[in-house]
Amino acid sequence: MSLKSVVLIAAALGLGLAGASAQAQDSALAPTFGNTIVSTHPDGRQARLWLSADHTFRAQGRGGNRSSGVWRVRGSRLCLTQRRPISIPFSYCHAFPQVAVGQAWNDTASNGDHVVNRIVRGQ
User: How many other CB atoms sit within 10 Å of the CB of residue 3?
Assistant: First the structure.
């Protein structure tokens, strides 16, 4: 996340503010680091997502398929960009509320399913 400025001093200050903003946004995701986000689909099957503080993720779909990639925060949205498997490039952004381990929230999966997400302790 960067800020554009006309003046070099403003640019340097803008980068400092962007860094602080990114840290604040990352801290909202801190409860997920070292834990698992479990998404339960209407058919009862579950997908799992593991976010790391280094902005990488691993995932296991409800059918057991595994993927990995990078994540970033855009405003209040968590954006995932799949890097593996390479044959299936994928990018998806969705709202991510500030929640703690054990808390659940309603969401929409990338396939349009209404899911219930929960942060579960451990991986």
Answer: 13
